[in-house]
Specification:
Layout: E1 3-8, E2 11-14, E3 19-22, E4 39-43, E5 51-55, E6 61-66, H1 75-80
Antiparallel strand pairs: 1-2, 2-3, 3-6, 4-5, 5-6
Length: 83
């Protein structure tokens, strides 16, 4: 899948029409993404995200949830603190 739009730093829309919120701790990874970046959506086994977007070129991964959903209470702070 390719990026259709990345209007906000924390939201990405893919060319299949799906929209995803990027985990706050993973935003820096997305800075190198371009419209031609090939991404793969995979289910996550992480406690904070439902899926991961994987950059096919360098295999970097960012945790995501569907746009409009909420991050699990307290988990974002725990993860960002290293908990």
């Amino acid at each position: 899948m390719k990026i259709h739009a990345h209007p906000e730093s924390h939201v990405v829309e893919l060319d299949d029409g799906s929209q995803w919120q990027i985990f706050p701790g993973d935003l820096a990874t997305t800075l190198s993404w371009k419209p031609e970046t090939d991404l793969h959506l995979e289910p996550s086994r992480d406690r904070v995200s439902s899926h991961v977007l994987v950059n096919a070129a360098d295999r970097t991964r960012v945790r995501v949830i569907a746009a409009g959903e909420s991050w699990p209470d307290g988990e974002v702070k725990n993860v960002l603190k290293g908990g």
